[in-house]
Amino acid sequence: MRASAETVTTTNEDGTITIPADLLDELGIHAGDRVAVGRDGDTIRLRRPGSVALRTAGAFRDAVPDPPLTLAEEREAFERAVAEEVSETPQDHW
Questions:
Q1: What is the pLDDT, as a whole number, of residue 28?
Q2: Rounded distance, CA 14 to CA 88, Å?
Q3: Any idea what the Cα angle at residue 32 is, between residues 27 and 36, rounded to 5°?
Q4: In the Cβ-directed half-sphere of 33, how many Cα atoms lie within 13 Å?
Q5: What is the residue range of 80's domain?
Q6: DSSP string, 48-76
Q7: Does residue 9 form part of some domain?
Q8: Percent over 90 (pLDDT), the chain
Q9: Is the peptide bond before 90 cis (omega within 30 degrees of 0)?
Protein backbone atom coordinates (compact mmCIF):
# COMPACT_ATOMS: atom_id res chain seq x y z
CA MET A 1 0.00 0.00 0.00
CA ARG A 2 1.42 3.34 -0.93
CA ALA A 3 1.33 6.39 1.31
CA SER A 4 -0.71 9.29 0.03
CA ALA A 5 -0.19 13.00 0.44
CA GLU A 6 -1.68 14.36 3.63
CA THR A 7 -4.92 16.32 3.29
CA VAL A 8 -6.30 18.69 5.92
CA THR A 9 -10.01 18.39 6.66
CA THR A 10 -12.34 19.87 9.30
CA THR A 11 -14.71 18.28 11.80
CA ASN A 12 -18.29 19.52 12.05
CA GLU A 13 -20.33 20.15 15.21
CA ASP A 14 -21.23 16.46 15.48
CA GLY A 15 -17.57 15.39 15.28
CA THR A 16 -17.97 14.02 11.76
CA ILE A 17 -14.83 14.11 9.64
CA THR A 18 -15.01 14.14 5.85
CA ILE A 19 -12.51 11.73 4.31
CA PRO A 20 -11.41 12.86 0.84
CA ALA A 21 -13.11 10.89 -1.94
CA ASP A 22 -9.82 9.89 -3.58
CA LEU A 23 -8.68 8.17 -0.37
CA LEU A 24 -11.99 6.34 -0.05
CA ASP A 25 -11.75 5.27 -3.69
CA GLU A 26 -8.20 3.97 -3.19
CA LEU A 27 -9.38 1.87 -0.25
CA GLY A 28 -12.52 0.68 -2.01
CA ILE A 29 -14.77 2.20 0.65
CA HIS A 30 -18.22 3.23 -0.58
CA ALA A 31 -21.24 4.97 0.95
CA GLY A 32 -22.82 2.66 3.55
CA ASP A 33 -19.71 0.50 4.03
CA ARG A 34 -18.61 -0.29 7.56
CA VAL A 35 -15.12 0.82 8.61
CA ALA A 36 -13.11 -0.04 11.71
CA VAL A 37 -11.67 3.00 13.50
CA GLY A 38 -8.78 2.78 15.96
CA ARG A 39 -6.25 4.96 17.68
CA ASP A 40 -2.49 4.45 17.60
CA GLY A 41 -0.91 7.20 19.71
CA ASP A 42 -1.90 10.48 18.06
CA THR A 43 -2.90 8.75 14.82
CA ILE A 44 -6.42 7.64 13.90
CA ARG A 45 -6.51 4.47 11.78
CA LEU A 46 -9.30 3.45 9.40
CA ARG A 47 -9.55 0.04 7.78
CA ARG A 48 -12.07 -2.22 6.20
CA PRO A 49 -13.15 -4.57 8.99
CA GLY A 50 -13.18 -7.85 7.06
CA SER A 51 -13.66 -11.07 8.96
CA VAL A 52 -11.68 -12.04 12.04
CA ALA A 53 -11.01 -15.41 10.42
CA LEU A 54 -9.36 -13.81 7.38
CA ARG A 55 -7.36 -11.29 9.46
CA THR A 56 -5.98 -13.99 11.76
CA ALA A 57 -5.62 -16.90 9.32
CA GLY A 58 -2.25 -18.55 9.74
CA ALA A 59 -1.38 -16.67 12.95
CA PHE A 60 -0.42 -19.91 14.71
CA ARG A 61 1.03 -21.70 11.70
CA ASP A 62 4.54 -21.79 13.19
CA ALA A 63 3.27 -22.95 16.59
CA VAL A 64 2.01 -26.30 15.28
CA PRO A 65 4.64 -29.06 15.28
CA ASP A 66 5.35 -30.68 11.96
CA PRO A 67 4.13 -33.37 11.82
CA PRO A 68 1.26 -32.67 14.25
CA LEU A 69 1.18 -34.56 17.55
CA THR A 70 -0.92 -37.69 17.84
CA LEU A 71 -3.76 -37.65 20.34
CA ALA A 72 -1.64 -39.69 22.78
CA GLU A 73 1.32 -37.29 22.40
CA GLU A 74 -1.00 -34.30 22.89
CA ARG A 75 -2.42 -35.82 26.09
CA GLU A 76 1.07 -36.65 27.39
CA ALA A 77 2.28 -33.08 26.72
CA PHE A 78 -0.80 -31.67 28.48
CA GLU A 79 -0.35 -33.91 31.54
CA ARG A 80 3.36 -33.04 31.71
CA ALA A 81 2.60 -29.29 31.56
CA VAL A 82 -0.06 -29.59 34.29
CA ALA A 83 2.30 -31.59 36.50
CA GLU A 84 5.04 -28.97 36.05
CA GLU A 85 2.64 -26.14 36.88
CA VAL A 86 1.37 -27.92 40.00
CA SER A 87 4.91 -28.65 41.19
CA GLU A 88 5.84 -24.96 40.77
CA THR A 89 2.76 -23.66 42.64
CA PRO A 90 3.44 -22.90 46.33
CA GLN A 91 1.52 -25.21 48.66
CA ASP A 92 -0.18 -22.28 50.44
CA HIS A 93 -2.03 -21.39 47.19
CA TRP A 94 -4.06 -24.62 47.23
A1: 85
A2: 56
A3: 55
A4: 15
A5: 62-89
A6: ----HHHHHTTTTGGGS-SSPPPHHHHHH
A7: no
A8: 30
A9: no
Task: Kindly state whether residues 50 and 66 are assigned to the same domain.
Answer: no
Phi, psi at residue 45, to the nearest 5°? -105, 140
CB 44 within 8 A of CB 51: no
Count up the domains in the chain and report the number: 2
25 and 49 housed in the same domain: yes
Helix (H, G, I), strand (E, B) or coil at 28: coil
CA distance 52 to 10: 32
Question: Is residue 37 within 8 Å of 44, Cβ to Cβ?
Answer: yes
How confident is the model over 53-92, as pLDDT tens digits?
Answer: 777 777 777 777 778 888 999 999 999 999 998 887 776 6
